[in-house]
TrEMBL record:
<protein>
    <submittedName>
        <fullName>Glycosyltransferase family 4 protein</fullName>
    </submittedName>
</protein>
<dbReference type="InterPro" id="IPR028098">
    <property type="entry name" value="Glyco_trans_4-like_N"/>
</dbReference>
<dbReference type="Pfam" id="PF00534">
    <property type="entry name" value="Glycos_transf_1"/>
</dbReference>
<dbReference type="InterPro" id="IPR001296">
    <property type="entry name" value="Glyco_trans_1"/>
</dbReference>
<feature type="domain" description="Glycosyl transferase family 1">
    <location>
        <begin position="187"/>
        <end position="350"/>
    </location>
</feature>
<dbReference type="Pfam" id="PF13477">
    <property type="entry name" value="Glyco_trans_4_2"/>
</dbReference>
<feature type="domain" description="Glycosyltransferase subfamily 4-like N-terminal">
    <location>
        <begin position="2"/>
        <end position="148"/>
    </location>
</feature>
């Protein structure tokens, strides 16, 4: 069996799908990857578990004319390699792969598409429904299996009668080898190695962009440190908003309270040494950074969006904040600094809730789809 993974960029494959590719190789699959090579931008990421890798010059915008050449290149690869399955991800990768492979489905090619969070959803801007919904609905005709990673997207695809078999899988699987809860002794030792002592460490992980909305957290810190000068926000990631965030930190004189870590390949260490994980993003599919916090037993404060709601039950294993509430992050960060009992309750409940999202569970769900054992809704 030969399977091709397609995504806009190779970093997406490396960050989210290597455990599944490893599983497929162990089950006798020949695994190929087609995506633009951007790994030089992502410190330390490397492609593993791929028998062959094709560097395809995809562009993120579906309307970029350069994608015409990428489409032709991908179509040629699919024709020559004669895959049994093409599993595509990301909006552009998903569109171009399904278009390139549509004529080969009559020869037995199965086209699987994972929607890592539809751009149209309850509360999404009207333009998202006007632009993205018709595209995804149309492309479903070229999709044998549509995988959704949130219950909300699954229900939407079913209610709107998308074509193909529609499945719900619990994300991409949080890595249980890399992310484990440390003992208090090991955690304190690691904090010292990273150069921290008595700070209350608040961690936010993600690309520095407008959707991830790190500026809201920085502004919240301006108030939090007035009550809790021991609080320190760590922002892990790189991206187009870097300079703007640096300017905001300087403007608010928060240099001692907000630290930009850059892109980290040892992010598991920072998850373990932190006291609280936060996210203020406007939109999420099923955020892996929150799952990584949960598996390490961390309390979470997150913006109230569809992806966060899938993982966080308000006041059970974390707190959901309405982004229209200007004091939401301020008040709740202060609450968890002050109340160890609440933080402990969230931590314990996160360790229980994460079980179905672990990579082992997700592998079991996916192998049923790959092997055709699950041709009905799961």
């Amino acid at each position: 069996m030969k399977i091709l993974f397609v995504a806009t960029v190779q970093s997406h494959i490396c960050q989210f799908h290597l455990p599944i590719m490893d599983m497929l190789q162990q089950n006798g699959y020949e695994v190929h990857v087609a995506a633009r090579n951007n790994l030089a931008e992502k410190n330390g990421l490397s492609m593993k578990y791929a028998d062959k890798v094709f560097d395809i010059p995809f562009e993120r915008s579906p309307f970029n004319s350069k994608n015409i050449g990428a489409y032709k290149q991908l179509k040629k690869i699919i024709k020559e390699e004669k895959y049994d399955i093409v599993h595509c991800h990301t909006p552009v990768g998903g569109i171009l792969a399904r278009l390139a492979g549509r004529k080969f489905r009559k020869y037995g090619l199965r086209m699987i598409y994972t929607a890592h969070g539809f751009h149209f959803y309850d509360g999404a801007p009207k333009k998202n429904w006007i632009i993205y919904y018709p595209i995804e609905k149309f492309m479903s005709r070229y999709t044998d299996d549509l995988i959704t990673i949130t219950e909300e997207d699954y229900k939407l695809a079913k209610d709107r009668k998308f074509k193909g078999n529609i499945h719900h899988v619990h994300g991409v699987g949080v890595n249980t080898d890399k992310f484990v809860k440390l003992s208090d002794e090991d955690r304190q030792k690691l904090r010292a190695e990273k150069g921290y002592t008595d700070e209350f460490i608040i961690l936010c992980t993600g690309e520095l962009n407008k959707n991830k909305n790190q500026s809201t957290l920085i502004k919240a810190m301006d108030e939090v440190v007035k009550k809790h000068p021991e609080a320190k926000l760590l922002l892990a990631g790189n991206g187009p908003e870097h300079d703007n965030l640096v300017e905001l930190i300087e403007k608010l004189h928060l240099g001692n309270h907000v630290e930009l870590l850059g892109y980290r390949t040892d992010i598991q260490d920072y998850v373990n040494i932190c006291d609280l994980v936060v996210s203020a993003s406007h939109r999420e599919g099923l955020p892996l950074n929150i799952m990584e916090a949960m598996i390490c037993g961390k309390p979470v404060i997150a913006s109230d969006n569809r992806g966060h709601r899938e993982l966080i039950k308000d006041n059970e294993n974390g707190i959901l904040v309405n982004l229209k509430d200007n004091n939401g992050f301020i008040d709740n960060i202060n609450l968890l600094i002050d109340s160890k009992d609440i933080a402990t309750k969230f931590s314990i409940n996160n360790l229980k809730r994460i079980e179905i999202f672990k990579v082992g569970s997700v592998k079991d769900e996916l192998i049923k789809i790959y092997t055709n054992e699950s041709r009905k809704d799961i």
